[in-house]
């Protein structure tokens, strides 16, 4: 039988989930989510809740709730969702404003970032709910409106979020579908897959987590390796070796082990490295790539190719928005 995927939020308490803004009637369901289920459902949650859960899945920590300000209307989440009405005319305009347009509403503080010109790569950071996603959408729309030759990649950490970005971008660019066609929306992995296909002429075949584990178990058996447990070896592969796409023992010896509680001496790393090397060869023989290998190939392709597929890239990550021309 295939192993049952663990519930990645099972250890969170009801208070933990309420503190990040999870709806009370979703709590029992969230606590039972697997990694795959969380990606499927993340776009149905408030953005700040989805980002906090993704951050927890990646780091094992939830963001610390900010103390409530004296003026509740000054809180970033409030500013993102609430527009203060000060006159009857403003109320009439708000009631007549189409609901789909409200979903891409830009607050003045966000407008400052959208309109700013950067001299090179830029990173915008902010806690959950401060509007980084909306800023990314408006930056992409601005790029294709101002430059008829612009080709923009708007990418994010999950396919559902990428799809939702596409729908909202279509609202912003409803006046000219040709501009929308010059923006590519994709998850990190889907974008890398497209670049891989452009470089090689074939679609990449991805190595599932199960396939990687089988390759490591086979390498352990073939080499008769017994120093460290298979469970530890697999976590070392996932969190260090493959995560950093380490090419050789020298790089493995010097790589920082951030987040790893167990220390490994140079001798231990030297004896376990052949397992990783053999597992990688097993996957390669089957024509399989891990996500890290795919990203490395895509990066190398962009560096080698003088003709770039995009003039600008916007990357919506967990707590930051990165832009590169």
SS-based class = alpha/beta
Assign an overall shape: globular
Strands, total number: 7
- The end-to-end span amounts to 48 Å
Q: Give the H and E element order.
A: HHHHHHHHEHEHHEHEHHHHEHEE
**What is Rg?**
23 Å
Main β-sheet description: 5 strands, mixed
Give descriptors for this structure.
single chain, alpha/beta, 3 domains, five-stranded mixed β-sheet, two-stranded parallel sheet, 17 helices, 53% helix
Present the secondary structure layout.
Elements: H1 14-19, H2 27-31, H3 35-41, H4 47-59, H5 76-81, H6 88-96, H7 99-102, H8 108-115, E1 122-125, H9 132-146, E2 152-156, H10 159-172, H11 177-180, E3 183-187, H12 188-200, E4 205-206, H13 209-223, H14 230-241, H15 249-254, H16 266-285, E5 288-289, H17 291-304, E6 312-316, E7 320-324
Parallel strand pairs: 2-3, 2-6, 4-5
Antiparallel strand pairs: 1-7, 6-7
Structure characterization notes:
With 325 residues, the protein is of the alpha/beta class. The protein folds into three domains: 14-59, no CATH class; 73-188 and 312-324, no CATH class; 208-285. It contains 17 helices and seven strands. The protein has helices at residues 14-19, 27-31, 35-41, 47-59, 76-81, 88-96, 99-102, 108-115, 132-146, 159-172, 177-180, 188-200, 209-223, 230-241, 249-254, 266-285, 291-304, and strands at residues 122-125, 152-156, 183-187, 205-206, 288-289, 312-316, 320-324. The strands form two sheets. A five-stranded mixed β-sheet has the order 1-7-6-2-3. A hairpin with a 3-residue loop joins strand 6 and strand 7 (320-324). Helix 9 (132-146) crosses helix 10 (159-172). The N and C termini lie far apart (48 Å). 27% of the residues are buried.
């Amino acid at each position: 039988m295939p192993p049952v995927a663990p519930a990645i939020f099972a250890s969170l308490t009801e208070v933990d989930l309420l503190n990040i803004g999870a709806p009370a009637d979703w709590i029992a369901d969230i606590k039972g989510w697997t990694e795959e289920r969380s990606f499927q459902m993340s776009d149905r949650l408030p953005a700040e809740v989805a980002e906090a859960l993704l951050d927890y899945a990646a780091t094992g920590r939830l963001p610390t709730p900010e103390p409530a300000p004296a003026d509740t209307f000054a809180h970033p989440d409030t500013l993102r969702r609430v527009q203060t009405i000060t006159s009857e005319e403003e109320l009439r305009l708000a009631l007549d404003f189409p609901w789909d347009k409200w979903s891409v509403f830009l607050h003045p503080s966000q407008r400052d970032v959208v309109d700013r010109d950067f001299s090179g790569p830029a990173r915008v950071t902010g806690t959950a709910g401060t509007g980084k996603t909306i800023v990314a959408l408006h930056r992409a729309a601005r790029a294709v409106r101002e430059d008829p030759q612009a080709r923009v990649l708007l990418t994010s950490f999950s396919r559902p979020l990428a799809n939702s970005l596409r729908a909202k971008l279509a609202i912003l660019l409803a006046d000219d579908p040709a501009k929308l066609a010059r923006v590519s929306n994709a998850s990190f992995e889907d974008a890398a897959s497209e670049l891989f296909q452009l470089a090689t002429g074939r679609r990449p075949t991805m190595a599932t987590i199960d396939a990687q584990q089988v390759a490591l178990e086979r390498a352990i058996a073939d080499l008769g390796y017994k120093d460290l447990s298979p469970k530890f070896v697999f976590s070392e592969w996932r969190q260090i070796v493959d995560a950093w796409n380490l090419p050789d023992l020298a790089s493995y010896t010097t790589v920082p082990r951030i987040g790893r509680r167990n220390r490994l001496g140079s001798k231990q790393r030297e004896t376990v490295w052949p397992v990783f090397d053999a597992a990688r060869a097993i996957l390669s023989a089957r024509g399989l790539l891990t996500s890290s290998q795919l990203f490395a190939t895509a990066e190398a392709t962009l560096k080698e190719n003088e003709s770039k597929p995009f003039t600008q890239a916007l990357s919506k990550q967990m707590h930051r928005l990165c832009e590169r021309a």
